[in-house]
Fold:
Amino acid sequence: MGACDIIPGVSGGTVAFITGIYMDFICSVKNINYKNIKKLVVLLWQRKWSSFWLEMKVLKFDFLLILLLGILSAIFLVSRVVLFLLEDYRVFTLSFFVGLILASAKVVLKEINLKSFQNILFGILGLTVGIGLNFLVALNIDTPSLFYLFISGFLAISAMFLPGISGSFILLILGVYQFILNALHHISSSYFSLSVFILGILFGAFFISRFINLVYHKDKSKTLFVLLGLVIGSLSIPVFEIIKLSSGFGGLNILLEITLFLLGFVLVFGLSKASVHK
Structure:
């Protein structure tokens, strides 16, 4: 999820769907509140270790902790590799991720029980939003204000929770993508700006997790159709770029693009089958 969220146009939320952990992710974040945190702090203070870990499992906080460690590790360790691939082998990297995204649409579709005409209309709504993202014009902001960084964090994490919408793409549109990447690589001189950005992320995660949990339990099929539309619609972003970058390519390069696309496609089905048998 962390590696995908670094790439504009690719959603970490899609990876959560592929691996079958999406609702566990949403529920674990939703469980973060004052009452639950206070209960855990009291158990720690009283040194009731067994009760503490049992409560962690019930709230899915143990799951969330491991997941966040994976995401943060990717952001800090894999980001340089991903950025190198995007800079020097962009079209091939995007081809691989398009295969991931397209295959994930089939994974999402399998989760939908009721495929009525009304629900399909919700899918078309999500598709329209996903395609519409491609036509947004990116801003160019060299020194964003602290309030703007807070809002950027809020919107980026909200996008990360939605399969098909990339948090990094939202940062790119808002004009702070490069600023945040540079801040991550120069933490000592940018810690205050990053702190405000992270605060926005925390507030965004608090609200979006509760919203998704609410609509999911109110009507699972409609919610999944919207998410499915977002996944498919968001393909327009990397696909248009691949077409543009591939102009003038020879047969060998085209073959490599197709091979990487198929590799990403096959990898998704391997991951989805592994999640079923876990």
Remarks:
- The longest helix spans residues 187-218.
- The CA atoms of residues 43 and 125 lie 46 Å apart.
- The chain has one domain: 2-276.
